[in-house]
């Protein structure tokens, strides 16, 4: 189980890790397009976002279907032909499923996921907000299966410094280490965002807007403060 505050990067890192391709165009037992075959070979997990209203039926329609498709796709890629891919799909089905927004799961859906994972033998990662682990403690059978809990933490101050030094330009802002104003502005960004990726994106977007409107090219603490004043930052961020 993984949990972390909003905007720390749970969804993004799970998507990057899983490299789960879009299987909408693929039909099981059909030939597989070469570009999709490449993606299937690279895929490490099936990524599934729980819908707001979920039932075992909706999970089967989305995750269940993708598991079947993935099983056939992997078998087709492994055997080199879709005609070979008619045997035991579960044998090669994806070994790992990552479930995002797991806080939304109803009791029945949770039970259904446990049942699917027991029967098909895949590993299951549930991702959600802090407190998910306490909620699940009420369901003894599910809880007894949890191997470990990982918390996504925001970046530390040192990590933020490194990130801003190497990647600030990706956000459309540069901090000149030789300028006092830029050093102070960087410290203000670190203080306000506290290592939260979503806050960083929002703050930098406002900073860019203010700098463009006022035709300013150098960052300063005043710009950071003006951008900060445009944002709502809750205690959960
Ligand atoms: N390692 C990263 N590098 C660059 N951008 C990132 C990184 N991690 C997250 N982000 C960006 O930060 C924003 C928030 O990330 P993400 O949606 O993954 O957060 P989350 O933890 O899933 O939040 P929530 O709990 O609200 O779903 C996204 O726009 C994402 O692209
Ligand atoms: Mg998310």
Structure, explained:
The structure is a single chain. This protein is α/β, with parallel strands linked by helices and 237 residues long. It has helices at residues 10-18, 34-42, 56-79, 89-92, 107-120, 132-136, 140-143, 157-167, 180-193, 197-213, 221-230; strands at residues 2-4, 46-49, 96-100, 123-128, 150-152. It is built from eleven helices and five strands. Helix 9 (180-193) packs parallel to helix 11 and helix 10 (197-213) crosses helix 11. The protein is globular and about 65 Å long. The two termini are 20 Å apart. The mean pLDDT is 91. Residues 10-11, 100 line the site of magnesium ion.
For the record, the CATH architecture of the largest domain stands as 3-Layer(aba) Sandwich
What does the average pLDDT come to? Answer: 91
CATH uppermost class of the largest domain: Alpha Beta
Number of strands: 5
Query: Compounds present?
Result: adenosine-5'-triphosphate, magnesium ion
Note the overall shape: globular
């Amino acid at each position: 189980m993984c949990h972390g505050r909003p905007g720390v990067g749970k969804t993004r890192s799970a998507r990057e890790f899983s490299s789960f391709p879009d299987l909408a165009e693929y039909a099981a037992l059909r030939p597989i397009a070469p570009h999709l075959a490449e993606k299937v070979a690279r895929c490490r997990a099936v990524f599934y976002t729980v819908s707001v209203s979920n039932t075992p039926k909706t999970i089967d329609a989305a995750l269940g279907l993708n598991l079947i498709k993935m099983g056939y796709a992997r078998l087709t890629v492994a055997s080199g032909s879709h005609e070979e891919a008619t045997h035991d799909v579960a044998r090669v089905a994806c070994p790992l499923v990552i479930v995002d927004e797991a806080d939304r799961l109803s009791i029945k859906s949770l039970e259904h996921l446990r049942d699917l994972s027991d029967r098909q033998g895949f590993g299951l990662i549930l991702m959600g907000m802090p407190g998910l682990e306490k909620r699940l403690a009420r369901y003894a059978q599910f809880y007894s299966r949890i191997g470990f809990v990982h918390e996504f933490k925001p970046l530390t101050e040192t990590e933020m410094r490194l990130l801003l030094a190497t990647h600030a330009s990706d956000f459309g802002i540069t901090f000149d280490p030789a300028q006092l104003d830029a050093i102070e502005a960087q410290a203000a960004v670190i203080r306000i965002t506290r290592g939260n990726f979503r806050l960083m994106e929002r703050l930098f977007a406002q900073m860019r807007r203010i700098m463009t409107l006022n035709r300013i090219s150098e960052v300063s603490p005043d710009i950071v403060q003006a951008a900060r004043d445009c944002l709502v930052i809750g205690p959960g961020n």
